[in-house]
Amino acid sequence: MIQLNLPPFEYKIKEIEGKICIFDTIRRKYLVLTPEEWVRQHFVHLLVNHYQYSKNLIRLEGGLKYNQLQKRSDIVIFDHDGQPSLLIECKAPEVPINQAVIEQASRYNLTLKCPYVAITNGLKTFCFEIDFTTQGFRQLPDLPRRVISNV
Questions:
Q1: Is the pTM of this model over 0.90?
Q2: Phi, psi of 4 (to 5 degrees)
Q3: Are strands 58-66 and 136-140 parallel, antiparallel or unpaired?
Q4: How far apart are CA 35 and CA 92, in angstroms?
Q5: Which domains does the chain have, with CATH numbers?
Q6: How many other C-beta atoms lie within 10 A of the C-beta of residue 55?
Q7: What is the Cα–Cα distance from 142 to 51, expressed in whole angstroms?
Q8: List of residues 6+ apart from 97 with CB closer than 8 A
Q9: Residue 109 DSSP class
Q10: What integer best gives the mean pLDDT of the chain?
Q11: Distance between alpha carbon 48 and the CA centroid of its chain, in Å?
C-alpha cells in the first residue's frame, strides 16, 4: 500500500480466504484491505490517537438515506449527546479531492447535518465548518479537537 500523509500506526494484516485483510479496531474484525480501507484505518487511528476521539463515538460505514437511495458514510463522529458532529469521507489515495467529492460529502451531510465535514484521500485532507442557517461553510486549518453538540 502507498505511504500516506497520516501518522503511521501498528496495524494487523492477515490473509483470509486468499484476500489480504486489515484489522478494524472500531468494528473489531478483519476487513478486505482496499486502498480506501487503508485510508479509513489510518484516519481512524489519527482520530483516536492524535485527536483523542473516543472509539465509542465513532461509527464506520453507517447507512443513511439520500433521495430514497441507501448510501454509506465512511466515518461519523458523534457528540456526547449522540448527535452526528463530524462526517469524514475517505477516498483512495489515487482519487483526487475535487468538487465532485466535496459535493458527495455535502449530499450525505444533508441527511446527517454534521456541523463539520472532512474529506481525505490520505494524502490531502480538508475540513469544513458548516453553517446551516446561511447555507455556507468555511474551510478550517485542522480537524476540530473535540465534537460539539448541534444545539
A1: no
A2: -105, 165
A3: unpaired
A4: 5
A5: 13-140 (3.90.1570.30)
A6: 11
A7: 11
A8: 91, 119, 120, 121, 124, 126
A9: H
A10: 89
A11: 12
Cell of 122: 490520505
CA distance 44 to 120: 12
> How buried is 7 (Cβ within 10 angstroms: 0-12 exposed, 13-18 middle, 19+ buried)?
exposed
Q: Sorting pLDDT into bands at 50, 70 and 90, what band is 146?
A: low
Give residue 130's identity as a one-letter amino acid code: I
Whether 84 shows a pLDDT value over 90: the answer reads yes
pLDDT at 151: 40
The residue to which cell 468555511 is assigned: 138
* Residue 149: per-residue pLDDT: 44
Q: What is the pLDDT of residue 68?
A: 52
| Distance (Å) of CA 72 to CA 66, 105, 147 | 10, 11, 21
Answer whether 87's CB lies under 8 Å from 112's CB: yes
* Tens-place pLDDT, residues 10-67: 999 999 999 999 999 999 999 999 999 999 999 999 999 999 999 999 999 765 545 4
Q: CA–CA separation, 95 vs 120, rounded Å?
A: 10
